[in-house]
User: Which sequence fits this backbone?
């Protein structure tokens, strides 16, 4: 793994208040709440792993720790889990759905 | 018949938690419609996902879309309530969310399970300053009642009602504002705080009994059950609060109906204290619980009188004498002057249509439809506004009622529960294509009880399809800007009816000729 990827896995992220995640039936959706209230066209569907990661982004766990939890919960290799995690966080940052949490002491 | 069967089917689902076999004469689509109308589409889908009955296979994608839309809408509405509370809090005014928004976050599994037409915020002090806070933020006033003013959110279009009291006739059921604030709980969702479960139950009961005459949608009755099942309630505290707010009777009445309609587990202690007359009436009428489910029309006046046996003079006083005039004047002299004019107006209103007090637009329609005067709002929102406010103003579009009502004119409507429609009225009715403003050409006082009513556009040729009385939601009492306009024209209605029947006969005759 590259040094930059390792650095990104050390970062801690927290969910933005402007994005709400809910499980409805078999779906897990993220609903943005900014601007014109909630917008049906802007909701995101997350798969099981992504939904699990979303719920871990509480501002207390680093990316590495979230990946550990993913590996423990799902049958997936570390390299794949790390790659998927980083890609998901990148998407969530673009959507303003997560923000960087203050560094832990 | 099918809609009531479908409502009964959906109610059975709520009570038993399981889907009964679908009767042969009940289309699956009717069940879906009933579930949507009663606010329980998400709960129907959850049951279908659990049991996977064959008949529901085609409904699943539609229900899933509906649930997704409900989630987005409800989350947006709760965000609106939170934002409104934040705006008034920024001016040092305490306010708490009420009813649906709190319940959606607290007792329902997910917000989409508790759809609502608008959100309610109870302002605990300086009501006019709270109004100013919303106005300054760009909110537009859409309706004004004694107990609440409704505003449209400038960004999302949702409606928030700012309440000065839980129900109309403020002061009839005194609010312990300090106590409400002290007993509040921290919110666990978007709302910063929730009222205590005991206060919430009392508010629901007052709203159901006094404001809606004990007729609610199924999801609103379900609120009672879930609150009783899922929140740890201090029954003694509920009784104490109900006594302090003089609301023992509405509490007991609402809980008795909730128990009958959706099996709400009401504690015995809370069911006591009904006046004998009301108790007898409920005993008789609860054998048909669907009579307490919308779109049944409540007998609001009778329910209120029954709820307030021994307090009727106070009911009249509180109805007439408001905490302030519509212009915000709190001086006693101004309030009494307004009370006198209102009393005079109400007395006249029982005999004829008269201009109502200040009301505001529900908004402008987008474009005039070709086939009638269309109403640009969802029935749910309109019903709620008509139930909550004495008058609702609409800007109409379409030309089929000219010259009686001209495209673009503002009209004021009164709900059918407050003023029984009569032949000649221009009524808001639920037609196959949606809500329409057409003239009532056959109905009271000529139609026998239980018969179907007929409406027709003044400039239309044919009669509209027959309507049940409950499909007529409201009637126009005022065309604004034209004091000489008479929206009710009995003679014109009879002429219109004759023309409609004539057109039908001519059509039948031509058809017969073509066949011969």
Assistant:
């Amino acid at each position: 793994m590259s040094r930059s990827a390792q650095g990104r896995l050390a970062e801690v992220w927290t969910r933005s208040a402007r994005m709400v995640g809910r499980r409805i039936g078999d779906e897990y959706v993220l609903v943005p709440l900014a601007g014109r209230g909630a917008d049906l066209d802007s909701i995101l569907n997350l798969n099981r792993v992504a939904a699990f990661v979303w719920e871990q982004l509480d501002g207390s766990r680093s990316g590495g720790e979230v990946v550990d939890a993913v590996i423990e919960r799902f049958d997936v290799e570390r390299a794949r889990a790390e790659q998927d995690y980083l890609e998901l966080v990148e998407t969530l940052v673009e959507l303003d759905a997560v923000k960087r949490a203050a560094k832990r002491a | 018949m099918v809609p009531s069967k479908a409502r009964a089917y959906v109610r059975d689902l709520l009570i038993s938690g399981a889907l009964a076999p679908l009767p042969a004469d009940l289309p699956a689509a009717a069940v879906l419609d009933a579930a949507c109308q009663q606010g329980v589409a998400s709960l129907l889908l959850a049951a279908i996902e659990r049991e996977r009955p064959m008949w529901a296979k085609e409904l699943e994608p539609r229900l899933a879309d509906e649930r997704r839309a409900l989630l987005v809408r409800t989350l947006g509405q709760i965000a609106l309530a939170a934002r409104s509370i934040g705006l008034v809090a920024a001016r040092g005014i305490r306010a708490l969310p009420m009813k649906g928004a709190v319940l959606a976050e607290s007792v329902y599994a997910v917000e989409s399970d508790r759809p609502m037409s608008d959100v309610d915020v109870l302002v605990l002090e300086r009501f006019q300053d709270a109004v100013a806070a919303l106005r300054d933020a760009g909110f537009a006033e859409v309706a004004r009642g004694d107990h609440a003013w409704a505003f449209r959110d400038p960004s999302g279009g949702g409606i928030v009602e700012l309440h000065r009291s839980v129900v109309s006739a403020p002061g009839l059921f005194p609010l312990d504002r300090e106590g409400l604030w002290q007993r509040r709980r921290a919110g666990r969702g978007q709302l910063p705080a929730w009222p205590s479960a005991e206060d919430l139950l009392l508010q629901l009961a007052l709203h159901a009994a006094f404001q809606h005459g004990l007729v609610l949608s199924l999801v609103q009755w379900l609120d009672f059950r879930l609150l009783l099942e899922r929140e740890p309630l201090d029954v003694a505290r509920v009784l104490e609060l109900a006594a302090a707010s003089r609301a023992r009777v509405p509490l007991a009445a609402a809980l008795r109906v909730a128990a009958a309609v959706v099996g709400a587990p009401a504690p015995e202690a809370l069911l006591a204290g009904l006046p004998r007359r009301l108790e007898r009436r409920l005993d008789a009428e609860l054998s048909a619980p669907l009579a307490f489910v919308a779109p049944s029309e409540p007998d609001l006046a009778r329910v209120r009188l029954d709820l307030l046996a021994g307090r009727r003079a106070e009911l009249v006083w509180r109805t007439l004498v408001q905490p302030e005039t519509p212009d915000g004047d709190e001086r006693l002299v101004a309030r009494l002057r307004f009370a006198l004019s209102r009393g005079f107006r109400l007395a006249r209103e029982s005999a004829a249509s008269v201009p109502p007090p200040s009301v505001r637009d529900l908004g402008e329609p987008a474009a005039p439809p070709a086939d009638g005067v269309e109403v640009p709002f969802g029935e749910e929102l309109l019903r709620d506004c008509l139930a909550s406010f004495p008058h609702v103003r609409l800007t109409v579009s379409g030309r089929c009622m000219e010259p009686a009502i001209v495209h673009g004119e503002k009209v004021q409507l009164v709900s059918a529960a407050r003023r029984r429609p009569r032949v000649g009225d221009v009524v808001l009715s639920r037609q196959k294509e949606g809500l329409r403003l057409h003239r009532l050409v056959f109905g009271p006082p000529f139609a026998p009880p239980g018969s179907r009513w007929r409406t027709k556009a003044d400039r239309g040729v044919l009669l509209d399809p027959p309507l049940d009385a409950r499909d007529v939601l409201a009637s126009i009492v005022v065309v604004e800007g034209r004091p000489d306009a008479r929206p009710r024209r009995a003679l014109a209605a009879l002429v219109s009816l004759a023309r409609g029947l004539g057109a039908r006969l001519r059509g039948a005759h031509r058809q017969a000729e073509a066949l011969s």
The CA atoms of residues 9 and 31 of chain B lie 7 Å apart.
